[in-house]
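Researcher: Please generate the 3D structure of the following complex. Treat every line as part of one assembly.
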Amino acid sequence: MSQSTINVQSRANVARRHWIQRVAFGSLWAAGIIAVLVLLLVVGYVFIIGTGTVLTDFPSFLTTEPKGGLSAEGGISTTIITTFYVVLLTIGIAAPLGIGAAVYLVEYAEEMRGRGGLIPRLVGVVRFGVETLAGVPSIIFGLFGYALFVSATALGFGFSLLSGSLACACLLLPVIIRASEEALKAVPRSYREGSLALGATQWQTVRQVVLPAALPGIITGIVLSVGRVVSETAVFYVTLGGTHNLPTSIFQGGRTMAMHLYTVATETTAYEKAMGTGAVLIMTIVLINLVINLISRRLTAGLKGR
Amino acid sequence: MQVKKLIDRGVGYLLLFSALLSVFIVFLIFYFTVREALPAIPGIGLYKAFGSGYDAYGKITRELKRAEEGQLQEALTSGLVAARSTLQEDKESALVSLAKDEDLSDSERNKRLARIEDEYSCIQGFLDDVENLLGSDLDEAALRAGVEAAQQRAIERALGGKLGLTVPPWAREVTLNGYGLFHFLTGSEWRPDAGKLGIWLMIVGSVLVTLMAIAMGVPLALSGAIFLAEVAPDWMRNIVRPAVELLAGIPSVVYGLFGMVVLVPLIGKIPVMDAKPTNTGYGLFSAAIVLAVMILPTITNIAEDAIRAVPRQYKEGSLALGATHWQTIVNVILPAARSGIVAAVILGVGRALGETMAMIMVIGNSVRIAQPLNNNLLTIFLSRTRTLTGNIAVEIAYATGLQEDAIFATGVVLFLMIMAVNSLARLVMRERRQK
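Model: Done. Output below.
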């Protein structure tokens, strides 16, 4: 603790100190309210104008394809579906790998420690990898995805759902690993010890006791990642290609809602359509957050022992 | 029972494999980005070293690469003719543009003249070497080796001329790469069609916009954090904290859109006398505001956690001694939470440096270094410029060849900068945990 600069104050000072406090707290209240208001202003502006767009053409804005052109004809139907595909594919790749890695780090790493000094070294290496990945900016994942998955000099998938999802899965891996690790660590040791005492193997314990107990936390992490995929633009901008047609296979490219917002905003003059896309995006994020809150409430209820 | 044990072990190793995957991916990212980026460095070095002779040199190089079996002699002969005429034309146009440039002092003019002459004679020598090789009766392999050796000599000569020292053959690679790297990082012109690929202006742009965003956002964010942690009543905290967390998840393009539609017109209205170029609203200022709003939730959340983590005894002891709540905050709680707060700010910096989409929507993306619009130094904040992230996003769609390699190199630079910032944050946070 730092050297305290508190002198025991005499009573004569009290009025002045209270006055200072009232000023300071007043500014803090102002700052807190300003911070929230600014954020709400930005998001609210886009949301309100955007909802206007969605509702005036309801439901055609959501069900027509975008048709390009200077005033961005059409709606956003294909982008919604493409976003859905991308989320499915990305989570499908990232979740098993991420959860598996977390299970290893929490359940097996110590168990295997007895087999020689290699394992703790590997665990340290894995942790370093996860922390490094967590800090990489998203455009770098896009560039990497372009170099490895899209480019003909490497895997050569071209601009496709596959390239985009693989690149984004790399982005999500640290998020899922961290969230799953937290969830697994929160399961009481007694669960594991009880199961092992009854004669179950490690894997049986993990599969039938620990994982179900940690499931709400893991699902929270997955849902958080879904939010991340929906918001992510830079990665897909470089790997998906941006055509407004609906991809009919994983080797075709497409456009997510966030990409569409960017394209409409910078290449056309149809700001209201961009706002409309933004409103749909914001609505999606809000829904995702609600789901997370519901799950974590169930989680805390579960841990309190029902 | 044996089977169960086997499954157990097998699963263990399978999971180990998926854990190691994360490390493998880091390695892949490094490998592939750097692989694409590396050719940029010697490429830029060559361009700078050969100057107006670059195109002529390139013609010979191309013939060397593209010639088919048995065609090398003819390919090089025609290439030589083309190269000689290109060299002549390029020298003349370089002299013409030098003559057109009116505000040059005499010494500067002579220096540039000497440089053009050096570049000319260097490539002239190279072409003479090639001509001699073509004249002597060599088989294809020997011809190829001879031309390659002539290339290396030309590089050494050009580098030596530019650096003012002799470059020995063993140091050629290193000198070329160092020369290229230096001009890549410090070159303040980015004009891919003219072969000028310097990212200094983008480094300046990124750093400036981040500093501005920090200056604007951190006071507000920290006040908000202190407010939420210490001053706000519980009901308010239960509403505001989830709201701030929600806002942290909003896509960055939404913030960028707001910036484009609301901020840019507003800032464009600021009157600037004799502005060159005129203030359009796009620029550092708009971008910094958008960025500040975006990093607000990040910094507030982490700083608030840090403040809440300070043990209650500190606070209670201070209050027991007669200090007011505010005095306690300033003199006891904040110093105790200092490393967590610093870590929060550093993570905000990392986020700001890495932000792409919102930046390219409001910063203007001009390839000029940030500079004041008129005599008033403050108008530097209204200048349009480009960030490192913006450079990557804007050019990747159509860049080819050396330019594409340079884009990847920009990515590597960005990657390294952010890794440095994040390592700093981790160091600070670890120091806090040990306290």
